[in-house]
Write a structure and sequence with these properties.
By secondary structure, this protein is an alpha/beta fold. It has two domains: about 1-170, Zn-dependent exopeptidases (Aminopeptidase, 3-Layer(aba) Sandwich); about 180-270, no CATH class. The chain has ten helices and eight strands. It has helices at about 25-40, 60-70, 100-110, 125-130, 145-155, 155-170, 180-215, 230-235, 255-265, 265-270; strands at about 1-5, 45-50, 75-85, 90-95, 115-120, 135-145, 215, 250. Strands 2-1-3-6-4-5 form a six-stranded mixed sheet, with helices on both faces. Strands 7-8 form a two-stranded antiparallel ribbon. Helix 1 (about 25-40) packs across helix 6, helix 3 packs antiparallel against helix 6 (about 155-170) and helix 8 crosses helix 9 (about 255-265). The longest helix has about 35 residues, at about 180-215. The radius of gyration is 37 Å and the shape is rod-shaped. It starts with a strand and ends with a helix.
Length: about 270
C-alpha cells in the first residue's frame, strides 16, 4: 500500500504549530508519525512523508501538506494530531464522516490502550481531509490538556504508532514476547548447548587428568604449576630433592603434591636446621 504520513502542524514554536498542554502536539505528532513510518516501511509498504515543518502561515502549512500528498499516487493519507479543549479520548476525522476500515480500526486500536473511543467525525471542513486526492483520515490521538496526556507519557509514542499501524494494516507489529514455539525452540537449543558444554567440561577434565599423570617437571620454572614452585625450591634448598647430572628433577604431578604436603608440615625447615 502507498501511504502518505503527515505529522501535523509545523514544528513547535513556529507559525502554525500545534496545541500545547501537558505535552506538545507538534513534538508528539512527529514522535508518533515517524515511528509509524518506520513500522510501515518495515512491513513492506511504500511511505511518503508529507510533513511540513516550516511555513509563513497556517494556510501555507496546510497547502504545502496537501501538495506533497497529492504529488504521490497514494492509497491512503494519514495526518497525525493531538486534540485540545479539555476532552478525553481518541477520534478520527474523515471526509463527510465516512466510516472505512482503516479509520474505524484505528479508533479501536488506540482506545485499546485505555482511551475513550470518540469514533469517526465529519472532517469535511478540515483542509487536509477535504483537499487530499486519496482517501484521507486525520487522527486525533488523545488530548494534550487533560489526564489523557499523562497517560500518553506513560504509554509512549511507539505504542500509539503500533496501534495506528494495526488500524491501517490489520496487522500486529512483531512482538518482543516469545511465542510458545519460539520458547520451545529456544529451550531445546539451550539444553543442547548445555549438554555440549558438559561434554567439553568432561573432555577438559580428562585432558587435565592425562597431563597430571603423564607430565614430568624437570626444572623449577614456568612450566611447573605456580602453587608447587615454593615447595619444590625449599625441597631443593635442603637437599630433599636433587636433580640428575643435568639438573633434571624428573618430578611427576603426584610428586609435586607430596612435596607440597611435606613443605606445609615444615619438614624442609627441620632439614635445614
Amino acid at each position: 500500500m502507498r501511504i502518505g504520513i503527515n505529522c501535523g502542524h509545523t514544528v513547535s514554536g513556529e507559525v502554525g504549530c500545534g496545541a500545547v498542554g501537558h505535552i506538545d502536539e507538534s513534538v508528539e505528532a512527529r514522535n508518533v508519525g515517524y515511528a509509524l513510518e518506520t513500522l510501515l516501511r518495515s512491513a513492506g509498504h511504500t511511505v511518503y512523508d508529507c510533513t511540513n515543518d516550516h511555513a509563513d502561515s497556517v494556510g501555507a502549512n496546510l497547502s504545502n501538506i496537501v501538495n506533497m500528498a497529492n504529488a504521490q499516487p497514494l492509497d491512503l493519507f494519514v495526518s497525525i494530531h493531538f486534540n485540545s479543549g479539555g476532552g478525553r479520548g481518541t477520534e478520527v476525522w474523515t471526509y463527510q464522516g465516512e466510516t472505512f476500515p482503516e479509520a474505524e480500526n484505528t479508533c479501536k486500536a488506540i482506545s485499546a490502550l485505555g482511551y475513550n473511543n470518540r469514533g469517526i467525525k465529519n472532517g469535511t471542513k478540515l483542509y487536509v481531509v477535504r483537499h487530499s486526492n486519496a482517501k484521507a483520515m486525520l487522527v486525533e490521538c488523545c488530548f494534550v490538556d487533560t489526564d489523557d496526556a499523562d497517560k500518553y507519557k506513560k504509554i509512549g509514542a511507539t505504542e500509539f504508532a503500533k496501534a495506528i499501524f494495526k488500524g491501517i494494516t490489520g496487522q500486529e507489529t512483531e512482538s518482543e514476547d516469545l511465542t510458545m514455539s519460539q520458547y520451545t525452540e529456544l529451550k531445546e537449543l539451550i539444553e543442547k548447548q548445555s549438554a555440549e558444554i558438559a561434554d567439553l567440561k568432561n573432555i577438559n577434565k580428562q585432558l587435565v587428568n592425562v597431563v597430571q599423570t603423564t607430565m614430568i617437571y624437570d626444572f623449577n620454572d614456568d612450566n611447573m604449576p605456580p602453587w608447587a614452585r615454593p615447595a619444590v625450591q625449599a625441597a631443593m634448598d635442603c637437599g630433599a630433592v636433587q636433580g640428575d647430572e643435568k639438573g633434571r628433577l624428573g618430578l611427576s604431578y603426584k610428586d609435586l603434591r607430596a612435596i607440597c604436603r611435606e613443605y606445609r608440615c615444615g619438614m624442609y625447615d627441620k632439614l635445614l636446621e
